[in-house]
Amino acid sequence: MAFLIRRLLLTLPILFIVSVVCWSMINLIPGDPATVILGPEASEQAKEQMREQLGLNKPLVVQYVDWLDGVLHGNLGESLVDGTPVSQLILQRLPVTLELALGTFFVSLTIAVVAGILSASNRGTWIDYLSTGFALGGISIPHFWLGMMFIIIFAVNLGWLPASGFEPFFQNPVANITAMILPVLATGLRESAELTRMLRSSLLEELGSDYVRTAFSKGLSKRVVVIKHAVRNALIPFVTASGLQIAGLLGGLVVTEQVFQLPGVGRLIVESIEQRDFTVVQGAVLTVTVIVVLINVLVDVLYAVIDPRIALSKE
Question: What DSSP string runs through 3-20?
Fold first, then answer.
């Protein structure tokens, strides 16, 4: 518990820095932000109204404190395009991105665990060569290209699955699942390659340790030694890579959402940048960044669960 409390306290300065960076997005725009948003042909009166709407006529410290107070109360501002609350726009798009990220991570994790364990425990065999070949191919192939190939094969040619679109799960579960299969597989196959390599190398290192040789000398079966002893000790770097992957997915699914026309947060950011709706960009980036920071905290907690010595060493 002390380890968890200490780790949560350490995130406070990180979240403070994140808030400053996100707030600075408006103030770091070259030139006059109101002119950038409205365009150079806008009247001076319209620009002044925009400055007042954004609070740019106040001292910087007051601007930041007012903005942070609103964020802490769930108010991320309003869209400069249609006046819709930013928090409402994010809540509408966030479930799509979370579903895509979690589905991708589940596919990636399942493939990586199976392929990594089989490859490491059968080193030098055709299983190992097949697994490493898959990992190398997966890292080399961009997921957006794989996504387009899936659309051509399974949507256009075979007509088995839809090429784009999205339906909320609770409104139409079947349509939701069928629409998410191709983007999840396209991204999950690509991401599983990196985790497979990580788990294989980490597990091979553990299989060469003294305690593994001692376990074999006691007559334990290969399955017991690998699953119950070696795999758990090999999970620390694997968990690190997994945590970084799911954190990266939240901010890195923009291309996948564009290819499959999914209304996620990444696509919201792209659309808002094109419309110069910087308030929405600011709120969306802040939301994604905070989620990434919290995922990193969860990964640290998992370290202590997998190996209690980590928490004890921090005491």
Answer: HHHHHHHHHHHHHHHHHH
- Residue 237 to residue 199: CA distance in whole angstroms: 8
Q: Which long-range contacts (CB under 8 A, 24 or more apart) does 270-277 make?
A: 272/79, 275/81, 276/36, 276/37, 276/80, 277/79, 277/80, 277/81
Question: CB–CB of 250/101 below 8 Å?
Answer: yes
Q: What pTM was estimated for this model as a whole? A: 0.78
Asked if pLDDT for residue 28 goes beyond 80, the answer is no
| CA dist., res. 245 & res. 294, Å (int) | 14
Q: Which residue has the higher pLDDT, 120 or 55?
A: 120
Task: Give the residue with greater pLDDT, 253 vs 107.
Answer: 107
Nearest to 180 by CA among 99, 293, 94: 99
The total of other beta-carbon atoms located within 10 Å of residue 112's CB is: 28
User: Distance between alpha carbon 233 and the CA centroid of its chain, in Å?
Assistant: 25
CB atoms under 10 Å from CB of 41, counted, come to 7
List, for residues 60-99, the tens digit of each pLDDT value: 788 888 888 888 888 888 887 777 888 888 888 888 888 8
Q: Please report the pLDDT score of residue 312 as a whole number.
A: 47
For the chain, which domains are there? Answer: 86-278+286-313 (1.10.3720.10)
227 vs 29: CA distance, rounded Å: 54
Alpha-carbon gap, residue 97 to 82, rounded angstroms: 23
